[in-house]
From TrEMBL:
Database matches in SUPFAM superfamilies: DPP6 N-terminal domain-like (SSF82171)
Gene3D superfamilies: TolB, C-terminal domain
Taxonomic placement: Bacteria, Bacillati, Actinomycetota, Actinomycetes, Propionibacteriales
Protein name: Dipeptidylpeptidase IV N-terminal domain-containing protein
Protein origin, superkingdom: Bacteria
Species of the source: Kribbella speibonae
């Protein structure tokens, strides 16, 4: 389900600041006035990480999904703002080992 209201997307423990960490890294949305903070993903500490989010034209979120014990396995995923519909759009093999995709829609 795509969002129809104005929202900001952000992530915790983004890959740019924390190259390798066991901290949970998730996507959140929040209204521009600071209200309504909502978790989109619920990855646990030491699990996958959601980083580098961006909006798609239809209101979904495209992001870098990071896995592996040293955070080197990366894929590009798509998710609805309500947390449903998570799917990989570019798998780790296509991204390549140790590469850092920064997905953006055009």
């Amino acid at each position: 389900m795509a969002s129809t209201e104005p929202l900001i997307v952000f992530t915790t423990y983004d890959i740019g600041g924390y190259q390798s960490t066991d901290e949970a890294s998730n996507l959140y949305t929040i209204r521009p006035d600071g209200s309504g903070r909502t978790a989109v993903t619920t990855f646990a500490p030491g699990a996958e990480r959601a980083t580098q989010p961006t909006w798609t034209a239809d209101g979904r979120l495209l992001f870098n999904q990071v896995a592996g014990t040293d955070d080197t396995t990366r894929s590009v995923a798509l998710i609805n703002t309500d947390g449903t519909g998570l799917r990989t759009v570019l798998d780790a093999e296509a991204v390549g080992p140790d590469n850092r995709p920064h997905p953006r829609m055009r």
